[in-house]
Specification:
Helices cover 63% and strands 10% of the residues. The protein is an alpha+beta fold and 310 residues long. It folds into 2 domains: 198 residues, Up-down Bundle (Alpha-lytic protease prodomain-like); 93 residues, Cation efflux protein, cytoplasmic domain (Alpha-Beta Plaits). Strands 3-2-1-4 form a 4-stranded mixed beta sheet, covered by helices on one side. Helix 1 packs antiparallel against helix 4, helix 3 packs antiparallel against helix 6 and helix 4 runs antiparallel to helix 5. It is elongated, with a radius of gyration of 26 Å.
Length: 310
């Protein structure tokens, strides 16, 4: 039982991402100029982050186009994991940018420059509005895609950076405390590190073909044994093809009286209904109750993973 309609409108997703890309690209140059004029690291860091936002969204758009290409030749899944590579690059860029901003912020804590607070406030408020628009646009796309989520995290972190810039500008304008600019930058750095680490962790799990979060292979194996005809399940593999597309393969042994085809259909229905696994490949074989050879050894000399048996 294979259901290939995943309910994702990639054309709509690309349109929303394009809206976000145009909004961010148009404002980025303005913020660079304002940051240089105000001598504000918070604004310059926000502009630098906007550059990575634009790159992340552009990368997401390219990855979407690649992922939409049909499977052919040696790429039997197509290029669906281009989206995962995009998400991983987005995570790496967040971590690298966070490291650079942290270094610059520490330097400014030691020797703070004179910051023009009112320019920071006005530009930060404008940036906050642009980021809100971009986040809204990306939020309309399918965020179950790790690729889209990566672009969304970039824009969300940029919104926090703009908010921090406004707060820093207000502190400088009202109190003359120039170190507020660097402190605001460090707060954003912490948020960027968290978002970057989450993207890297989730994308790496998919590339290493770990079981999807929330799906326990042992639980799935035991549920397959609920069918009274099933004697043993081994070589159970559970992974994600790409975001939102779990897949499973397993070797299932049934008793001599069972109808292999009927058992397979029933198990595929269970996987689809209870675990939302629509890409399931099950090898179903009979096992002899009168053979003294251990079942697993007879059918698979070296099974991968846990053997589930009744």
């Amino acid at each position: 039982m294979h259901d290939h309609d995943h309910g994702i409108d990639h054309h709509a997703d690309r349109r929303w991402l394009a809206v976000a890309l145009i909004a961010i690209g148009a404002f980025m140059a303005v913020e660079v100029g304002a940051g240089i004029a105000a001598r504000s690291l918070a604004l310059i860091s926000d502009a630098a982050h906007m550059l990575t936002d634009a790159a992340a969204i552009a990368l997401a758009l390219v990855a979407m186009r690649l992922a939409a290409k049909p499977a052919k030749g040696s790429y039997t899944y197509g290029l669906k994991r281009a989206e995962i590579l995009s998400a991983q690059l987005n995570g790496v860029s967040l971590l690298v940018l966070a490291a650079w901003l942290a270094y610059e912020a520490v330097q400014r804590l030691i020797a703070p420059p004179q910051v023009t607070g009112w320019i920071v406030i006005v530009t930060g408020l404008a940036g906050l509005g642009i980021n809100a628009l971009a986040a809204w646009a990306i939020g309309k796309a399918n965020r179950t895609s790790l690729n889209v989520q990566g672009a969304y995290q970039h824009v969300l972190m940029d919104a926090f950076a703009s908010l921090a810039a406004v707060a820093a500008g207000a502190a400088v304008a009202l109190t003359g405390f120039n170190r507020a600019d660097a402190i605001a930058t460090l707060i954003v750095v912490v948020l960027m590190l968290r978002a970057g680490w989450q993207l890297l962790r989730d994308s790496t799990r998919i590339l290493l073909e770990a079981a999807p979060a929330g799906l326990d292979p042992d639980e799935v194996g035991q549920r397959l044994l609920d069918d009274r005809a099933v004697v043993e399940v081994h070589d159970l593999h559970l992974w994600l093809i790409t975001s939102g597309q779990p897949a499973l393969s397993a070797h299932v042994l049934v008793n001599e009286q069972a109808d292999c085809h009927a058992v397979r259909v029933g198990l595929e229905r269970l996987l689809a209904d209870d675990f939302h696994i629509h890409h399931a490949t099950l090898q179903v074989d009979h096992c002899s109750e009168h053979d003294s050879t251990p079942i697993t050894e007879k059918h698979c000399a070296q099974p991968h993973g846990v053997v589930h048996r009744r």
